[in-house]
Inverse folding.
């Protein structure tokens, strides 16, 4: 509904002011598809869709500050549901979590201050795009590295990894 409003001119992107969007029907279909895919992939992987929505918002022409804030806000819901789930399963070490909350809060305040000063010094908001791209890259490499490391360790220890023997089934 919102996409059709954008296409017909009844709705506008508030980040672009009164400027009309020139989106075509096939572009809206693609963006809607990517939005649904971002939600599904984010839900399946536990990302909250933020890593997928951030670049998608930038592609839509939304300013980097708005894109980053909106993607982070969307990830908050997925993360908070995971916290509730772990707490209900009694797998949530409260002192450990409080320590990380304090460290993350302080790091977020310092990071926000440093990035704001860098943007004012450089005069370019595109720094946020580069930070977002770098964080996605580091996350992907780290996640892959940890997964491969765990898999190699389990193979060396001859641990069961959840795979069934394909040869024991009759065709």
């Amino acid at each position: 509904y919102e996409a059709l409003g954008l296409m017909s001119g009844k709705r506008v992107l508030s980040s672009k002011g009164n400027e009309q969007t020139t989106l075509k029907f096939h572009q809206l279909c693609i963006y809607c598809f990517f939005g649904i895919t971002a939600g599904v992939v984010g839900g399946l992987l536990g990302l909250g869709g933020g890593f997928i929505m951030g670049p998608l918002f930038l592609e839509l022409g939304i300013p980097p500050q708005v894109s980053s804030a909106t993607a982070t806000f969307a990830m908050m819901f997925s993360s908070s549901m995971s916290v509730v789930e772990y707490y209900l399963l009694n797998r949530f070490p409260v002192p450990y979590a409080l320590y990380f909350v304090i460290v993350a809060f302080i790091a977020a305040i310092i990071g926000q201050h440093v990035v704001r000063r860098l943007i004012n010094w450089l005069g370019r908001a595109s720094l946020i795009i580069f930070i977002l791209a770098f964080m996605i890259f580091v996350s992907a490499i780290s996640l892959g590295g940890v997964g491969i490391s765990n898999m190699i360790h389990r193979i060396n220890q001859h641990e069961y990894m959840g795979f069934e023997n394909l040869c024991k089934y009759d065709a």
